[in-house]
Amino acid sequence: MKKNIILMAVLLLSSSAILAQISQGGTPPSFGLGEFKLAPVTLAAPDVKLLAVQDEQNDKNGQPMRLATAVKAGMNPQNSGSWTSIGRGEKIWQLQITSKGAKALGVYFDRFYLPEGSRLFLYNEDKSQVIGAFTSENNPKDLPNFATELIYGDKVTLEYFQPAYVKEQPIIQIGEIAY
């Protein structure tokens, strides 16, 4: 069984490099603007004890190990987070999601579209892990879905930057969080 787990981990890690979302790099604009006051959205943590019992049963039945469980989110810039004007017509939308006790959080988007010129970043609480910038180059071609790698810790902040010349609205619909 340990050989299977090691083999599965190697396959997952090697395939994640192939399937990973390509980001453009950079630093979230808010990092140079001081602290923003964010009101985190708290999602209920799943029943970890129940999940452990299920995982033990699945292991006995030879099923693959669960890496995460989905927590329903239903968030977007229209119903969650906050917009801040940062001057010259530029603005930032930020959303901090918390799910207590999580080792890491991943974000699954039901619908995802970024206008050309805009950027989206995700980062953990102490800003030691930053992914992005995701841009219009990351817009899904066939399916509207989009997912990110895991962000370590029980808080993830999404930061969308919109330059003044961008008039088109983004579509950032978060369906689930991987806990």
Q: Can you give keywords for this protein?
A:
179 residues, alpha+beta, 6-stranded mixed sheet, 5-stranded antiparallel sheet, 2 helices, 17% helix, globular
Please explain how this structure is put together:
This protein is an alpha+beta fold. It has two helices and eleven strands, in the order αβαββββββββββ. The strands form two sheets. Strands 1, 3, 4, 6, 7 and 10 form a six-stranded mixed sheet that branches. The radius of gyration is 18 Å and the shape is globular. The two termini are 24 Å apart. The N terminus is likely disordered.
- Total number of helices: 2
Order of helices and strands: HEHEEEEEEEEEE
Radius of gyration: 18 Å
Strand residues, percent = 35-45%
Low-confidence stretches: 1-19
- By secondary-structure content and strand pairing, the structural class works out as alpha+beta
Give the integer mean of the pLDDT values: 88
The share of residues in helices is 10-25%
N-to-C CA distance: 24 Å
Q: How many E strands?
A: 11
Spatial shape: globular
Q: Main β-sheet: number of strands, strand sense, barrel status? A: 6 strands, mixed
